[in-house]
Amino acid sequence: MAETGHIPVLLPEVMEALGAGRGGLRVLDATFGGGGHTRAVLERGNSVVALDCDPEAAARAESVAAAFPERFSFRGVNFEALDEVSEGPFDAVLFDLGLSSYHYDTAERGFSFRHEGPLDMRLDPRAGMTAAEFLEKADRRELIRAVRQYGEEPSWRRVVDAVVAARGTEALRTTRAFADLVAEALPRRPGPPPRIHPATRVFQGIRIAVNRELEVIETALPKAFAALGPGGRMVVISFHSLEDRIVKRFFRRVAGMPEHSRDSAPQQSRTVSARLLNRRPVTPPDSETATNPRARSAKLRALEKRTD
Predict the structure, then answer these.
(1) CATH placement of domain 2-102+214-305
(2) CA 239 to CA 243: how far, in whole Å?
(3) Fewest CB atoms within 10 Å of the CB: 106, 130, 135, 260?
(4) Are 88 and 229 contacting, i.e. CB atoms less than 8 angstroms apart?
(5) Which sequence spans correspond to the domains of the chain?
């Protein structure tokens, strides 16, 4: 995996959940990213169709195509367009919803305040508005949704007020300037410095808003399930509670189970189209998080489509 430059999360667990060790499977990797999961699936004798809207991912896919020319193909599209892939039905579909290391480590992409760069955050830099443009143009309702709902920032009012006041200045144009603005807006808390940077939640919320991430997941999951053949498996790795909630509810819905504590629909009205392979999400072992801290919030859920 070293040649990909990206450490695939929960790799043994993903291979087991997909059933990749059997070989001969047709797998859809909806989130190619650094290519680590795809390469591992291919090395076990399977074929893969991979999707990713990031043009840099397309360049990384070239080495995989060279190594597995007969069993690998790449499509430069967002997984929202999954239903346009004609190679199905598939024996397995994989979603790794986290950003790849390349996104965080490339300053020009603007995802991280660890590097100074333009405040971009787009998964596909060829389309849509940048994070800087979103902060300048979004109305207050949209800003509140991004910071409060998507970022889950308790002091969201302070952040939204600071953003509106900073419009037209340099504070909304680069990663570090924006991170400093957020840190300055948030209340000082007594005691030692927080473990995570004060702007972490806000960066997450803005990124989700810019890329419509939750909306895209909600659209793609039913399409992926429809693309599975009988007995096919879907495996999803999420990295924060908002993603995991969407995945959990969809999985429970197709398994004919109540989606949440307030779901009181009668059992006879439910359709059982799949079975859950794990009732509780699989999380990384301590040995993995010690070597790859970015894996610490990962949760894996898997299901198998009914054969009848």
Answers:
(1) 3.40.50.150
(2) 7
(3) 260
(4) yes
(5) 2-102+214-305, 108-212
Strand partners, 96: 237
Q: Does domain 108-212 have CATH number 1.10.150.170?
A: yes
> How would DSSP label each residue in 51-74?
E---HHHHHHHHHHHHHSTTTEEE
Amino acid symbol at 283: T
pLDDT (tens digit, 0 to 9) for every residue of the chain, 308 residues total? 333 356 899 999 999 999 999 999 999 999 999 999 999 999 999 999 999 999 989 999 999 999 999 999 999 999 999 999 989 899 999 999 977 766 766 777 888 888 899 999 999 999 999 999 999 999 999 999 999 999 999 999 999 999 999 999 999 999 999 999 999 999 887 767 667 788 999 999 999 999 999 999 999 999 999 999 999 999 999 999 999 999 999 999 999 988 887 877 778 788 899 999 998 999 999 999 999 888 889 999 999 999 98
Q: Do domains 2-102+214-305 and 108-212 have the same CATH topology?
A: no
Place of tokens 């300037």: 177
Structure tokens at 31: 């989130």
**Pairing outcome for strands 90-96 and 26-29:** parallel
pTM of the model: 0.91
Q: In this structure, what are the phi and psi dihedrals at residue 231, rounded to the nearest 5 degrees?
A: 80, 0
Query: What span, in angstroms and rounded, lies between the C-alpha atoms of 76 and 165?
Result: 38
